[in-house]
Amino acid sequence: MSEISARVENLLIRPGQAAALLGVARKTILEMARDGRLPYSHCTDGGHYRFRLADVVEYLEAHSEPGPAGQELSLIHI
Fold this sequence. Notes:
Elements: H1 3-9, E1 12-13, H2 15-22, H3 26-34, E2 42-43, E3 49-52, H4 53-62
Antiparallel strand pairs: 1-3, 2-3
């Protein structure tokens, strides 16, 4: 794994960023983290969640449905 790949693999994003990637509300992301549907990297002492970008992309790929020809992903079902 290259240094750049390793850095991207461990890139942390905030709940709002994860929500934008998955097309859901920030509140939904937090609920998903709390009930174990979406892994999170850590939760700060102040209760702020951080997610690995790689985990969010993996979730997106696992929960997406193939779209029409020429499209790789369509809306996800949570």
